[in-house]
Amino acid sequence: MRQGDWGDWGYRLREYRGTLLALAAFLAMFAIYIANHPVGLTPNVAQTAANKGVLLAIVAMAQTLVVLTSGIDLSVGMVLVLTNCLASTLVVGSPLQVALGTVGVLATGALCGAINALIVIHGRLQPIVVTIATGAVYYGAALALRRVPGGDIDGTLADALTGQLFGWLPASLVLLLGLVLLVWLPFRHSVLGRATYAIGSAEVAAYMSGVPVRRAKFAAYTLSGLLAAVAGLFITCVTSSGEASAANGNTYTLYSIAAVVLGGVSLFGGSGSAVGAIFGALMFRTIGDLLFVFELEPLWQPLFQGLVLAVAVSLGALRLLRVRNRLDLYG
Fold this sequence. Notes:
Elements: H1 3-15, H2 17-36, H3 43-67, H4 76-90, H5 95-123, H6 127-145, H7 155-162, E1 164-165, E2 169-170, H8 171-188, H9 191-201, H10 203-208, H11 213-239, H12 246-262, H13 274-293, H14 301-321
Antiparallel strand pairs: 1-2
Helix pairs in contact: 2-13, 3-8, 3-11, 3-12, 3-13, 4-5, 4-6, 4-11, 4-12, 5-6, 5-11, 7-8, 7-11, 9-11, 12-13, 12-14
């Protein structure tokens, strides 16, 4: 192989290093989990594990889009909660009503993301501040919809998204693959997707180079809200109810940040992949499953998950402390 070819491969390995490490760690942890599970890898075990992992993976994808622009979205969990409450109200009835309700739920999530983008872009405020405020608004709207837990969702749709295909394949994994193929990959290879990476690397330089900074940010935040709405619809299919739970919203927001870092996405922006964040989410969820099979006391589980969250964020921050120039992230 020529020297130039080795250089190309070396660049690709560095580019996807975080994703590959997250994949390897997830496979190792999942193998340990299955090896110690009382019944092993059965279709029901795979379905349960997939449903839990896919839910966090979708939220992690939503978080990744904003992190790539060098921002943090602290409202993704509340958009999930809002759309969960909305789905438990609208996605019922005849097939036409279910279809319209689903479109309404997804449109609501996209609208929430667009509102975040408009405030960040035109208000010129820090994303973390904006999304704290909008997250509170979205949670208030969720409370207005669901003062107490309840509601329902169409059973056919729920089975299609959370059941099994061919008697063994978790449908949630097909949903996740569809989101990667239909949302992430087209965006990643589009002009706006490349602009998103440029913004995270050096926003001023990107602007001076003619990169459509505002349009790219608007697209990233809007798609983030759309994916959070998919997660809200999915959790409604899993639970068959809606709940305006601040604890759930905050938990998924924090866990999504941990998954993003574990998946090799730089908190500095401009580096990483939603696919890596997916494997980071699956790895993070597997930690809870491992604690279960090793019969650790449930009261200790939040402690261990919190430690993993702290280590994940610290590792991301440690890499930033060693960076003297943004270009060092790609060297």
